[in-house]
Design goal:
Elements: E1 2-5, E2 8-11, E3 21-24, E4 29-30, E5 53-56, E6 63-67, E7 70-74, E8 83-84, E9 94-96, H1 101-107, E10 114-116, E11 122-129, E12 135-140, E13 144-148, E14 151-155, E15 161-166, E16 176-183, E17 191-195, E18 206-213, E19 220-227, E20 232-239, E21 244-252, E22 266-267, E23 273-282, E24 286-295, E25 300-303, E26 322-327, E27 334-339, E28 345-351, H2 353-361, E29 367-374, E30 380-387, E31 400-406, H3 423-430, E32 434-439, H4 458-471, E33 481-491, H5 493-502, E34 513-517, H6 528-535, H7 542-547, E35 562-567, H8 576-587, E36 593-597, H9 608-622
Parallel strand pairs: 31-32, 31-33, 33-34, 34-35, 35-36
Antiparallel strand pairs: 1-2, 2-3, 3-4, 5-6, 6-7, 7-8, 9-11, 10-11, 11-16, 12-15, 13-14, 16-17, 18-19, 19-20, 20-21, 22-23, 23-24, 24-25, 26-27, 27-28, 29-30, 30-32
Helix pairs in contact: 4-5
GO molecular function: dipeptidyl-peptidase activity; serine-type peptidase activity
InterPro entries: AB_hydrolase_fold, Peptidase_S9_cat, Peptidase_S9B_N, Serine_Prot_S9B/DPPIV
Domain Peptidase S9 prolyl oligopeptidase catalytic: 421-624
C-alpha cells in the first residue's frame, strides 16, 4: 500500500506492522540507509521498529505514526525525532487511533481510526478500551532456531506456545469507545478534548461506526453511532468548545430487520445538510441501499435514488480533473483515465485483453450462464452456472457432476459478472463439472427479514430448493446435471451453511457430500457485533441460538460424506468452532475427514494450494470425477 506526496513515497503495510521507508522520487534513491530510523522512548528495541500505521498529515510533509497503540507525530520524513501525542496505549487492551480486533473485523472494517482536520492542526481519533472484553487463546506452533547436535536448525518448539486476543462473544462485554479532538498546532502544549455521545445513548452499550470533520474551521465533527442491538443509528454533530454531540438524524430499522453499517455521511460545508446511504424498502419484501438527503434545520428527508438495485459507496475528490474507470467484467479487465468534465477517454492505463485475450483463445474455459429461479413464498434466487468446456447445448445424454459453492452470509453477494479465473474455473474446466453459485434470501438485496432471529433456517433450505428446481425435468439445464453426483462446499459462513445442509440427514436428498472450510458452528462463540444484530442476545433468543447450532445436527451427517478444514489461528471463525463440531461428530460415530492447519488464519494464505488440492481430491472420490485429459468437441462455442 502506498501514499505519495511531492517528492516522497511512503510505503506501509498495516496488518502486522511494518518498518518505515521512503522513496525519494526526484533522486530515485532511498534515504537514509533504505529505511528512516524510527526511535521511540518507550521501546528498547533496535531499529527498524514495527509500526501499526503511517500516513501523511493532510497536505503536508508531516507524518502520523502509530506504534504500540499510541499516536506519534513526525515533522518530516528526514526528521529522526517523534512527538508522542497519546499516552494511554496498552498492547492488546487500549488502542489509540487504530481499531481493536472487533472494530477492525466487523464495525469500522478499517485499520485506522483517526481523522486529521482539513488544515492538519487538529486530530480526531478514537480510543478503544478492551479491559472488560473476554480473551480468546489459541495455540501457536511457529518454528524457532534450535541447537541440534551443535548446529542450528529450524524445527517446531517441543511444546506449542499460545497467543491471545480480546474477542467479545454474544452477551459479554464489548469494547468501550471514546472519541477525542486533539489540538496539535502547538506540540509543546497539547490540548485534548473528549467528544461526548448523544444523550440518547446514555447508560447503554453502543458502537461508533464512522466519524469525520464538518467544514474547514476545526470547530465541528460528525459522528455516527449505533446501539448494541443495531436497530437504532444516530448521525450527530459535535461542536467546540464542549464537543457534545447533538442528534442530527436518526435511522431505525424496519420491523424484523437490522441496520447495516454504511459509509460516513457527506456533509455540506455549513453542516446543515448531508447525503447518506440507508436501507429503503422497495416493494413488499425487498430492501435496497439508496441515497438520502437530510436537511438538519428543516428536518427534511428526501430519498434521491429508487429501484430494485444497490447504490455502492464511493466518495471521490470531485474537483479532480481526471478520474479512473475500471471495467472488471464480464470480459477481460481494463482501466482508463477520463476527463471529469467531458468524460472523454484520455489514456488506457491497462488492458488485459492485449496479450491475455490471445492466450484465452487457446484455453478451454467454462461457459457462464446466469438467471433466476423461484423460491418458496414468492422469492427468487440468483443462480450462476459454469458449464464445462465439453458442454454443448445440443448434447442429449451428457449429465455432469455438480459442485455447488454456497455463502449465505447476510448481505453477501456470490453471483457477479466480474471476470475471474479461480477454483470454480479450474474445477469446471479440469474436472468437467457444472459449478454453481447461488444468492438466496438474506444475500445482498434479498430480504434480510428472512434471517432475522433465525440463522441456519431459510437460507439453508433455499440452497436445497434452488438446486431442486434446476433438477426439475421442466428446466432447460436439468438434463446436464447428474442428480446422483452433487457436492456442496463453503468457506466461513458458507462452511456453516454446508454443515447445516448435510446435517438435515434424510430430510435432504440433493447433496451427496460436502466440504466446510473454517466454518462457524455455534453462534455463542462468534463475535458479538455480527451475531447480536441478527440473532439478538442469547438471553432474549436462546431458542434461536440452539436452532442455529450446527453441532446439534452433527448426528444426522451421513458417514464419510463430510470434509472439515480449519486454520488453528483463525480469528474470524475461531478454531474452537471446528473442535466443537468434530467432537459432536465423534460422539455420534460419524466418520469424516478432518484437516487442521497450524498458525493459519481465516484466509489459509500459507497453505491455499494444499487446501484446494485436498478439496479436489475429496470431490474426485465422492463424486467420481474424471480428471483425465479429454478432447473437446470441435464445434462452435455457444
Amino acid at each position: 500500500m502506498s501514499n505519495i506526496f511531492r517528492n516522497y513515497g511512503c510505503f506501509k503495510q498495516h496488518q502486522l506492522g511494518s518498518s518505515l521507508g521512503f522513496w525519494n522520487i526526484a533522486s530515485e534513491d532511498w534515504f537514509p540507509s533504505h529505511h528512516i530510523p524510527v526511535r521511540f522512548e518507550s521501546s528498547p528495541k533496535a531499529q527498524p521498529e514495527r509500526l501499526q500505521y503511517v500516513s501523511w498529515l493532510r497536505d503536508t510533509t508531516s507524518l502520523l505514526i502509530i506504534f504500540n497503540n499510541d499516536i506519534y507525530y513526525r515533522h518530516s520524513p528526514e526528521d529522526e525525532t517523534n512527538t508522542r501525542l497519546t499516552f494511554t496505549g496498552q498492547p492488546d487492551v487500549v488502542f489509540n487511533g487504530v481499531p481493536d480486533w472487533l472494530y477492525q473485523e466487523d464495525v469500522l472494517q478499517s485499520q485506522e481510526a483517526l481523522w486529521p482536520s482539513y488544515d492538519g492542526t487538529h486530530l480526531l481519533y478514537a480510543t478503544f478500551n478492551d479491559t472488560e472484553v473476554g480473551i480468546l487463546n489459541f495455540p501457536w506452533f511457529q518454528t524457532e532456531a534450535v541447537l541440534a547436535g551443535g548446529k542450528a536448525s529450524n524445527r517446531p518448539m517441543l511444546f506449542p506456545g499460545s497467543k491471545s486476543i480480546r474477542y467479545p462473544t454474544p452477551g459479554t462485554p464489548i469494547p468501550q469507545v471514546q472519541l477525542w479532538v486533539l489540538d496539535i498546532s502547538n506540540l509543546t502544549n497539547l490540548e485534548n478534548y473528549q467528544v461526548m455521545p448523544p444523550n440518547a445513548l446514555e447508560g447503554q452499550d453502543y458502537y461508533m461506526t464512522s466519524a469525520g470533520w464538518i467544514g474547514q474551521k476545526n470547530t465541528e465533527v460528525s459522528v455516527v453511532w449505533i446501539n448494541r442491538a443495531q436497530n437504532l443509528s444516530i448521525v450527530s454533530a459535535c461542536l467546540a468548545p464542549n464537543w457534545t454531540c447533538i442528534e442530527s438524524h436518526t435511522e431505525r430499522s424496519l420491523e424484523r430487520a437490522w441496520l447495516e453499517v454504511q459509509e460516513h455521511p457527506i456533509f455540506s460545508p455549513d453542516g446543515d445538510s448531508f447525503l447518506m446511504l440507508a436501507h429503503v424498502q422497495e416493494g413488499r419484501r425487498e430492501t435496497y441501499t439508496h441515497i438520502k438527503h437530510i436537511t438538519v434545520t428543516q428536518q427534511h428527508i428526501a430519498v434521491l435514488s429508487h429501484g430494485p438495485h444497490e447504490i455502492s459507496p464511493q466518495s471521490d475528490n470531485y474537483r479532480a480533473p481526471f478520474y479512473v474507470l475500471q471495467c472488471e467484467g464480464p470480459g477481460l479487465p481494463l482501466a482508463g483515465m477520463h476527463n471529469s468534465t467531458s468524460h472523454k477517454l484520455l489514456k488506457i492505463l491497462y488492458d488485459t485483453r492485449i496479450g491475455h485475450g490471445v492466450l484465452l483463445q487457446d484455453l478451454a474455459m467454462p461457459k457462464k450462464r446466469s438467471f433466476e429461479v423461484p423460491l418458496p413464498q414468492g422469492s427468487l434466487a440468483e443462480v450462476q452456472l459454469l458449464l464445462p468446456p465439453s458442454w454443448r447445448e445440443e448434447l442429449r445424454d451428457a449429465a455432469y457432476p455438480v459442485v455447488v459453492e454456497v455463502n449465505g452470509r447476510p448481505g453477501s453477494k456470490s453471483v457477479t459478472e466480474k471476470f475471474v479465473v479461480d477454483w470454480a474455473t479450474f474445477m469446471s474446466s479440469h474436472c468437467d463439472v457444472v459449478y454453481i453459485k447461488l444468492d438466496v434470501r438474506g444475500s445482498r438485496g434479498r430480504a434480510d427479514k428472512a434471517l432475522y432471529r433465525q440463522l441456519g433456517g431459510i437460507e439453508v433450505q433455499d440452497q436445497i430448493s434452488a438446486i431442486d428446481y434446476l433438477l426439475n425435468k421442466d428446466h432447460k439445464y436439468h438434463k446436464y446435471l447428474d442428480k446422483t453426483r452433487i457436492g456442496i462446499w463453503g468457506w466461513g459462513y458458507g462452511g456453516y451453511v454446508t454443515s447445516m445442509v448435510l446435517g438435515m440427514g434424510n430430510q435432504q436428498k440433493v447433496f451427496k457430500c460436502g466440504i466446510a472450510v473454517n466454518p462457524i458452528t455455534d453462534w455463542l462463540y462468534y463475535n458479538s457485533a455480527f451475531t447480536e444484530k441478527v440473532l439478538g442476545l442469547p438471553t432474549e433468543n436462546y431458542k434461536g441460538y440452539v436452532q442455529a447450532d450446527a453441532t446439534q445436527r452433527a448426528k444426522n451427517i451421513p458417514r464419510k460424506s463430510f470434509f472439515l478444514l480449519h486454520g488453528m489461528a483463525d480469528l474470524t471463525a475461531p478454531y474452537q468452532h471446528s473442535v466443537l463440531l468434530s467432537r459432536a461428530l465423534a460422539e455420534h460415530g460419524v466418520l469424516f475427514r478432518y484437516q487442521s492447519y497450524p498458525d493459519e488464519g481465516h484466509e489459509l494464505s500459507g497453505v491455499l494450494e494444499h487446501v484446494y488440492s485436498s478439496m479436489q481430491n475429496f470431490f474426485e472420490e465422492c463424486l467420481k470425477l474424471d480428471t483425465e485429459e479429454r478432447e473437446l468437441p470441435a464445434t462452435e462455442d455457444t
